[in-house]
Amino acid sequence: MNHMLRRQLPFVLLAIFLVVFGMVAPQNVVDIGVYALIYGLAAIGLSLLMGLAGQVSLGHAAFIAVGAYTQAVLVSKANLPFILAAPISVVAAMIVALIVGLPLLRLRGHFLALATLGLGIIIGVIVTESEFLGSTSGIYGLPNISFGGRAYDSAQEYFMLLTPFVVIGLWLAVNIVKSRTGRALSAVNDSETAAECLGVDTFALRLRVFVLSAGYAGLAGVFYAHWLTIVNPSVTHFEVSVKILLMVVLGGLGTVWGALIGAVAVQALDEGLRALVPILIPSAKGEVQLIGFGVILVMVIILMPGGLAQLWQRLRSRFGPAGASRLGQHEHEITQEEQRELLDKSLGILARTDHEPVGTTILEINGLTKRYGGVTALDDLNLDIKAGEIVALIGPNGAGKTTAFNMITGVLPPTEGSVKIHGKEVAGQLPHVAAALGATRTFQNLQTFKSTTVLGNVKVARHLRSKAGLLRGMFMLDRAEERHIETTAQAAVDAMALTPLADHPIADLAFGKQRQVEVARALALEPSLLLLDEPMAGLSGPERDSLSWLLRKVKATGVTIVLVEHDVAAVMALADRVAVLDDGKLISLGTPAEVTNDPVVIAAYLGTDDDAEASPKDRVTTQGGAQ
Amino acid sequence: MTDLLQLVFAGLAQGAVYGLVALGFVAIFAVREIVNLVQGEYAALAGLAAISAVGAGLPLLVAIIVVVPLVVGVAVLIERITIAPIKKMTPLTSIILTLGVSTAVKALMLLIWGPEAKGLPNFPGSDIVLGGVSIRSQELWVLGIAAIVGYAVIWFYEHTVRGKSLRACAEQPIAARLVGISPRTATVVAFAIAGFVGAVAGVVGSPIYLSSWTSGLTMGLKGFVAATLGGLTSLRVAMLGGLALGILENLVAGYLSSGYRDAVAFVVLVLVLLFKPHGLAGKSSGVRV
Known about the structure:
The complex is a heterodimer of chains A (627) and B (289). Chain A is of the alpha/beta class and 627 residues long.
């Protein structure tokens, strides 16, 4: 509880600061403050979009404009009171975002950015052309806001009115970043594939954040309209969008607080440049402040990509207490006994009881094929996996093992063929579909979430086993669920004997340890089908033994395991069945004993040269070692 | 019918300018996967600089010969100063960065040339009337020069070893380095080409469409829309896309309202992204974008 109170403290301090500032600061400074808070609201929203969804809107002014114009129409034409009109205006901005985001957020990269830039222009054209919206002169004569017998008509009064909205808006945004949605989207930014394989529906979450961010802009538009008492096409202009973007970038990408700090800095810069440039260059007129915006935007990206937040971090680490040195602490290892105890306890927490009865077909692969141009990476794979068995996929490098994994889990769409998990077709669907059916995986080339800790990585895997949405997260109604996520994620960490490393940034861990985190992460999802891509690589001998032991235990709880592995000795000891791939084709399938004696397998591994000395096992291990 | 032909022809000329700008987007995207939002500014800058040169007494041809290489130099210089130092270029960074540069360039143009739009004098020649359609000689210049420059750029990228190797840089940077193509050179060449087509678009278009500190924004965006029609990778489709966009805009302006001209491009953009995100000629399956 103490921790929760500490989390609220900065907001209380901010509120006190703003109130005092509004009371004591001189009129012209408060004037700037009013604009900083109005644009700050929009910047907080854009910061959520950029930090969480990893997307940028270059036309955020469009959403401010929708909010402002809707408010102006409702208040001055329909005579609605402020209180009624404001929520409608905010929702209007959100609806526009929904319409734009629905098609565009499925695409990655630069598309949303340019489409929003286009949206800004379209909205500008519409408001300029529409006589109903007053064409170029806009809608004027909006009333000042007044309620509770108090008119908010001076800068001081308006600043006081804005303060609670900004503080609460910031509080909600920070809560989102720390919520289940924030965690999932931050994972997406680190590794979209891994997050999707843990069941994160990237598109759905991004769309929600985009719509919410437009809501913040819409609210900014409402306050903009009432403060200026006029709304005209200038609110849609490109300069406004650039300004809000600069606020977020200068404050620090991904930090919501930074957006507010950035808003203050940029608004002050704006006013300063408008005053200064005409003094330096007497002929200058128009939007002269843009020169500063452009130059600072470029300089921040090149010299200080983390913005003011990065500067603040640097100052704190220089003058603050030295952070505990992270490395070298992993040394105290957990003994095998301890680990086995921990594992039993963890499985008690994590093991689901609703697995399908042993022997039913859980994964059906039919005619699965992947071609790249003329190259066939996987050719007509047919394989049924039964509940409760361990199946190993082996074969030389390039045999198509990982390609098969990628298609089963939805990371790659197959060229042909079908993949059914629990009887449901998943081929060609995104990875979160397979994950929702209980199938998850680890990766040959690590796909960890680098910006968080070991425990943070594992918590993402609880995404499908928890359900707090954006709203619950915003209003902190997710506390009980968050505690449960914490407990279960900790259990998965314990199961892999990673307890002493739980709070370490994952990037500090050795390769083999990161691989174990991936296994812990997969276990935390409580999968019914677990696909492990070379889980033994980079592990020491004892660690491999522990992992084999653990996988048997996991299997005993009813989980089906498919693994790609080069350590043939380990595979033969562990697997119930072995499938051998060579050159994209399944050449042998059977018990470990059957496969090792299959002449086709021997030929594939050794070539047909009878004089070859190495045994299949040696050859395969060398292959694995060469990776 | 004459009206329609008139609108189509005017649109063709305007579209040729968009097509040239679109080539600039593709020239860079094909090599570095960067959407260069400065692209439109090259055109605005070339137009304004040429107007000043003519104003200073230079003959039109000399002004153009001086200004175009100058803008190419500016394009390369900006790349060296802003793009080159970034080690890890993500789409987000490249967009913010090039937006910042474009904002700064716009503001500089505002400070130097002021807010008013100006036009270069027409290139020599007299207007003609063909079957009732009046054709401005400048429009013929635009089409002719765009055809030559466009063809040259496409030929360079598709038929010369050097041009093909530029694309190889985007697809296989390490392999390209192994066979002796440095990504640094490739980037510089790409930006030079983008600066060149932008500058040409700026000077040939200026007499009709005028140049101002803000003209780069809309021109850049429309060029981008045209480039998107080609999935940002096809030079041919980008050029044709520019022409189609120009015609469509003029039809909308002629038959609906000239105010809606600027909205056309973005409606097209949203529709293309909705139905054919990989471009009109691109395949819609395979690796996800």
